[in-house]
Design brief:
The complex is a heterodimer of chains A (about 150) and B (about 325). Chain A has about 150 residues and is an alpha+beta fold. In chain A, about 30% of the residues lie in helices and about 15% in strands. Chain B is built from 14 helices and no strands. Classes of the chains: A alpha+beta (about 150), B mainly alpha (about 325). The interface of A and B includes residues 29 and 34 of A.
Chain lengths: ~150, ~325
């Protein structure tokens, strides 16, 4: 008989506590982001595909065309090539492409780069209609970027 | 011809009342459907419908049009007449209680002496509709939903009736208008708080809403008794459910919250409807609130709660009321 009433009161109290939880949630701000219209900033830790870093002073990249990334890449998806030019020390980068269809985002290229010329991009809207759209010309990207 | 002219005003009154009842049923379903989804969203920290119109206010109109355009599928082995009859039986009876609800002192279809009995009688037809629908679908989930609904409604109608009976003993009338007028100085929720609580619980169970939504328990029975229904026959069940919510909340308002009484406004015989609807929709808000708060009860818990707690408590409450009425 004692448990009959104590159960009733503890049960009723738990119901009131539950109502308090939901009414608080009802008046707290919503957390949904209306995605295509509203975007939140990408965290700096985000590891997208690789991109050449643009140096503010020179307005260009830091790549010395050593080819370490190309050799290090386990999926063979990076192609780097350069040529000798008059008045330029070392090699001049002419081709830097990434085949993102094969890339496994391991980041070995970023780690091996001696001049820290590579970094992860924060590009996450990566839908496309054809395979060609994922063969990135990183050199062109770094030139186009402001 | 003379008899026709003598009953003509009454006939016009019936037609006008029926139209008003239909407006309330459909308007209420629109408002409640939107409010339910919006409140559910905000309780879960998401915005709810947002796409159709500003803050998604036309969502229910679009949904209604979609449901109207859908095909009515009858399962191959279903009992077709019963299958088609069930949604009509769930929807049609909700118009009758609308006629006797006193929205304000002068806005009331008919002030019957047996208003309460009429409402309870027509409200329980809903159970029959669910049983027929579940049986006619020839589907084990539907049938289980129907069984549960009958067991639940039969059990919960008893405390509901007994808690209302305590009020009837105090006011000595079944007429809803009389009961609403009897609480002009002090509302019956103050005198009969226990009866109000019991009615509140029984009301949730009667309308088959969470946490007592075992007849449709979507995680166990797909959609319960309306698993096989589509298009308009499904939406008739939903319309009936929302109208039933409106009716039970109106009864609670009339019996415990003083009907249309409130702070006087100009033309209060008519403008009292504002207070009445405010109280009804506050109760409806409460129903939505608890739906998105509590998990579904197990069936034995549901039955235990009714037979071990609600019925004894309501009987004791009735006994005390009767003794007090006799003594005072």
């Amino acid at each position: 008989m004692k448990s009959y009433f104590s159960e009733l009161f503890t049960g009723a109290w738990s119901l009131i506590v539950g109502l308090k939880v939901t009414i608080k949630a009802l008046f707290s701000p919503i957390v949904t982001v209306q995605y295509p219209r509203e975007k939140i900033e990408v965290t700096p830790n985000y590891r997208g595909h690789i991109d050449l870093v643009k140096v503010e002073d020179t307005g260009t990249h830091k790549c010395i065309t050593c080819g370490s990334c190309m050799r290090e890449c386990p999926s063979d998806c990076i192609v780097v090539d350069g040529e000798k030019r008059e008045g330029v020390k070392g090699k001049y980068l002419t081709i830097f492409t990434l085949d993102f269809t094969k890339c496994s985002l391991c980041g070995a290229c970023v780690e091996v780069c001696p001049t820290k010329a590579l970094d992860y991009s924060d590009d996450y809207e990566l839908a496309g209609f054809a395979r060609d759209e994922f063969y990135y010309d990183l050199l062109k990207r770094v030139e186009e970027r402001e | 011809m003379e008899t026709f002219y003598s009953i003509l005003p009454e006939l016009i009154r019936i037609v006008v009342c029926a139209i008003c009842g239909a407006v309330i049923v459909f308007g209420n379903a629109l408002v409640m459907g939107y409010a339910e989804r919006k409140l559910a969203g905000h309780i879960m920290l998401r915005p709810g419908p947002m796409e159709v119109g500003p803050h998604g206010i036309y969502q229910l109109v679009v949904d209604g049009l979609k449901l109207m355009g859908k095909q009515l599928v009858v399962p191959a082995n279903a009992d077709k007449p019963l299958f088609m009859l069930a949604p009509l039986l769930a929807f049609a009876p909700v118009f009758v209680p609308m006629l006797v609800i006193p929205f304000s002192d002068k806005i009331q279809g008919f002030d019957l002496d047996v208003g309460l009995l009429l409402i309870l009688a027509f409200a329980s037809i809903n159970v029959l509709a669910i049983l027929i629908g579940g049986w006619g679908s020839n589907n084990k989930y539907s049938l289980f939903g129907a069984f549960r609904s009958v067991a639940q409604n039969v059990a919960y109608e008893i405390p509901m009736l007994i808690s209302l009976l305590a009020i009837v003993f105090m006011t000595n009338t079944f007429s809803l208008k009389g009961i609403a007028e009897a609480q002009s100085p002090v509302w019956f929720i103050v005198i009969q708080p226990l009866a109000f609580l019991i009615y509140l619980v029984a009301m949730v169970a009667e309308t088959n809403r969470a946490p007592f939504d075992l007849p449709e328990a979507e995680s166990e029975l797909t959609a319960g008794f309306h698993t096989e229904y589509s298009g308009m026959s499904f939406s008739l069940f939903v319309l009936g459910e929302y109208a039933n919510m409106f009716i039970v909340c109106s009864v609670a308002t009339v019996f415990f919250l003083g009907g249309s009484s409130g702070i006087p406004l100009p033309y209060f015989e008519y403008s009292g409807i504002i207070w009445f609807l405010l109280k009804v929709y506050l109760l409806m808000f409460f129903l939505i609130w608890i739906r998105w708060t509590y998990p579904r009860t197990r069936f034995d818990q549901l039955m235990n709660f009714c037979w071990k707690y609600l019925i004894p408590f309501s009987l004791v409450n009735l006994l005390i009321t009767v003794v007090m009425v006799k003594l005072i």
